[in-house]
Design a protein that fits this description.
One of its GO terms (molecular function) is nucleotide binding. Helices cover 37% and strands 26% of the residues. Strand 2, helix 2 and strand 3 form a beta-alpha-beta unit. It has 2 domains: 135 residues, NAD(P)-binding Rossmann-like Domain (Rossmann fold); 150 residues, Dihydrodipicolinate Reductase, domain 2 (2-Layer Sandwich), CATH 3.30.360.10. It is an alpha/beta fold. It contains 10 helices and 14 strands. It is globular, with a radius of gyration of 20 Å.
Length: 320
């Protein structure tokens, strides 16, 4: 995979720090805004990126780029992903995918027309610890209660309170706790249990944005809650509870550093099966395989899951 990256924010820095651990990945190009050009120069030198652009169109026209990683504020995902697909590039789009299911379907139609692939970058469902949760669901079934918690006191929250509204807290840029953190919980719940019968979001609103909130998902045989908070602190323990035991996620749900199972009447078993030191490695190894092998079946399955998640996210967002 010959990757062109659009963006120069924190997630790009995170990704570039582990890019050399992804087999068959070439850092072909980086595109930044003119304002961030100096950051781009520093990243290009530090990570040996072949080309640096200040105009996304130049990156789209680069014949050495076959895949575009869209790593920009949420509100820009759709327009940039669409332009990349129309240029015949595969697309890896950061979470949350796009704003609406209509936008997602439009992108998929363009991808299919141009015989390229589009996937959403969402770390947790590609982790080995998530596979442990999947593999052990039957041991605790029937399952009746799901409670996921992603609370992380934001490094931008104090500035937000002082009136410095950055994209992560900007309603005009599709920010907020639900979109930033709650999306991880949603991917886990929907990957494990499918779409719910009912969706109800109870947000804490400050300055017209949800700084935290609790999302309730109702199923015929279980109830699920998703806590997402950028204005609070928590040790972050999540549980999936059944009649025969419980599965536990210890730590932030985006990286799932430890997981466990406790069967009724037994001591808990805590494990870490994640193979890699950074949460983004597993997903990009999988994306590289899908794109290099032109595995449209796997890409279609990933898109269907992202679309189902987005449908719930959209319904919850409309209740803010």
């Amino acid at each position: 995979m010959k990757l062109g990256i659009i963006g120069s924010g924190k997630i790009v820095h995170d990704f570039l720090s582990i890019a050399d651990q992804i087999p068959d990945l070439e850092l072909a190009a980086l595109s930044t805004t003119k304002k961030s050009h100096q950051i781009g120069l520093e990243l290009q030198e530090k990570y040996n990126i072949s080309k640096l652009y200040q105009d996304n169109t130049d990156l789209f026209n680069d014949a050495n780029v076959d895949t575009v990683y869209v790593a920009v504020p949420n509100s820009l995902h759709f327009s940039i992903a669409k332009a990349a697909l129309e240029a015949g590039k595969n697309v890896i789009c950061e979470k949350p995918f796009v704003a609406t299911t209509d936008e997602a379907r439009e992108l998929k139609e363009i991808a299919d027309k141009n015989q390229v692939i589009i996937v959403e970058a969402i770390t947790n469902i590609y982790l080995e610890n998530f596979k442990f949760i999947e593999d052990n669901l039957a041991k605790i079934a029937p399952i009746h209660v799901v409670n996921l918690n992603y609370t992380q006191y934001s490094s931008r929250y104090d500035a937000f309170l002082e009136g410095d509204i950055q994209p992560a807290f900007d309603p005009k840029k599709d920010g907020g706790a639900l979109m930033d953190l709650g999306i991880y919980n949603l991917h886990i719940i929907i990957k494990l249990f499918g779409k719910p019968d009912s969706v109800k979001y109870f947000p804490t609103i400050q300055k017209n944005i949800d700084t935290s909130g609790i999302l309730h998902l109702g199923y015929s045989d279980k109830q699920a809650s998703s806590i997402a908070a950028k204005d609070s602190f928590s040790p972050n323990v999540s549980t999936i509870e059944g009649e025969k035991g419980a599965l536990i996620i210890y730590g932030h749900p985006n990286e799932m550093p430890k997981v466990g199972i406790q069967l009724l009447g037994e001591e808990p078993k805590v494990v870490n099966h994640n193979k890699y030191s950074h949460r983004m490695i597993a997903e990009f190894i999988e994306f590289t395989k899908i794109i290099d092998q032109h595995d449209f079946t796997a890409a279609d399955q990933a898109f269907t899951h992202s679309l189902n998640t987005l449908a719930v996210l959209q319904e919850a967002k409309n209740q803010r």
